[in-house]
Amino acid sequence: MLMPTKTPALRNAMSIDVEDYFQVSAFAPYIRREDWNGLECRVERNIASILALLADKQVHATFFTLGWIADRYPQLVKAIVAGGHELASHGYGHERASDLSPAAFLEDIASAKKLLEDLGGVPVVGYRAPSFSIGKSNLWAFDVLRDAGYRYSSSVYPIAHDHYGMPDSPRFAYPVREGLLEIPVTTLRLGSRNLPSSGGGYFRLLPYALSRWMIRRVNEVDGESAVFYFHPWEIDSDQPRVPGIDAKTRFRHYVNIPRTHGRIARLLEDFRWGRMDEIFLGREASPRAQAPSLSAA
User: Fold this and answer.
1) Which residues pair with 273 in a beta bridge?
2) How far apart are CA 168 and CA 159, in angstroms?
3) Quick check: 128 and 15 in contact, CB under 8 A?
4) What does each C-alpha distance from 202 to 199, 208, 210 come to in angstroms?
5) Is 256 left (phi over 0), alpha (psi -120 to 50) or beta?
């Protein structure tokens, strides 16, 4: 039975991955990177809508922003900072961390950090890998992130998925290196499995009441703040349709997009929200999260 709506004591972290529809990793086989500059970009109008919604609900959030986007739309970066939100890094060119060498990864995250800091005028201490692409095969990425000056990552998704995931990693914030915290997006433990309960396509697919129940259960049973995420294109019903994509990719990308803005608005009302840095930095990692042996592979 679903629990009635009430305001929980814990604040949860609201986060937005600032990228456009044509930069989605699942579209990489269909859209060439060198063609990005010629495609209709819709991220400005979608971020403006998100900023207006957050202001209306009096919520501050974390925006994991691509350097590629910041380069082309510097006023977007300034608007995020002016709204009182945390400016964080999504890398520069939306390349999966698992596809890069350590040197190329350093170049990607360092250039994005410098660009965002120069434009926003604020320190950038958080990073989220595109497609949650830090896993067992590239744990060296944590060393690179620490050395580049980041204080936290939100790059490991503790679920089993065909494109990403490390299901045996801790579900809640834990130190991965001295001075570097990993803050996974939220999962619900059911039996022996972790179920996604933190946004993205699952939030669009599942009934809203079920998503709300899962977040509330993490708050009230686990006693932990949830980490939720979505993308600007997920509220954009009018985005151009990418031709020739397979049925699975089409379903995953477009399912229930017309409903997402309304669902996000309800979510902002049903829970307390804040920025990643304000909720997690300066506090100890969860006592339930035992840090595994995450040495470079």
Assistant:
1) 12
2) 8
3) yes
4) 6, 10, 11
5) left
pLDDT at site 63: 99
Pairing of strands 180-182, 174-177: antiparallel
Q: Tell me if residue 13 falls in helix, strand or coil.
A: strand
Length of the chain: 297
Pair of tokens at residue 163: 């494109």
Q: How many of the other CB atoms lie within 10 Å of CB of 94?
A: 24
Give the residue among 126, 41, 46 at the shortest CA–CA distance from 86. 126
Which amino acid makes up residue 110? Answer: A
224-263 pLDDT, tens digit each: 999 999 999 999 999 999 999 999 999 999 999 999 999 9
**Residues 6+ positions from 35 with CB-CB distance below 8 Å:** none
Smallest Cα–Cα separation from 226: which of 164, 167, 172? 172
Q: For residues 146 and 155, what is the distance between their CA atoms, to the nearest angstrom?
A: 13
Which stretches does DSSP call E strand in 113-153?
126-127, 152-153
Answer for the pair 227, 15: CB distance below 8 angstroms, yes or no: yes
Give the pair of three-digit tokens for residue 119.
Answer: 């434009």
Q: Using CA atoms, how far apart are residues 153 and 125, in angstroms rounded to an integer?
A: 9
Find tokens 């089993």 and name the residue.
Answer: 160
Strands (E), the chain: 11-18, 62-65, 86-89, 126-127, 152-153, 174-177, 180-182, 187-190, 193-196, 227-230, 272-274
pTM of the model: 0.91
